[in-house]
Design brief:
mainly alpha, 89 residues, globular
Length: 89
């Protein structure tokens, strides 16, 4: 198991909340994730790395917010994958 998949295993609920926020807002900035998901700076950075690995946001380009690559309509499908097939909120 890779360190990042281990991180996802331990933070699945937080990642689901982050995915939900980012897809609904169509905005992915570390500070916005911190405020809206109510997590710290380091955890928000990890969530951005996981979002990039999942193909939800573009790779970092300096300090600006990342573009979201998945439309709002993709939210339920991704949340289902994150939760391992469980679609209950």
């Amino acid at each position: 198991m890779t360190p990042r998949s281990e991180a996802l295993r331990h933070n699945r609920d937080i990642f689901a909340d982050t995915v939900s926020y980012v897809l609904r807002a169509q905005f992915a900035a570390q500070s916005a994730i911190q405020r809206n998901v109510r997590i710290g700076h380091v955890k928000a950075g990890l969530m951005l790395v996981l979002l990039e690995e999942w193909g939800i946001v573009e790779p970092a380009k300096g300090s600006r917010a990342r573009d979201v690559l998945v439309p709002k309509e993709g939210l339920e499908g991704i949340l289902s994958e994150v939760r391992g097939g469980d679609t209950t909120p």
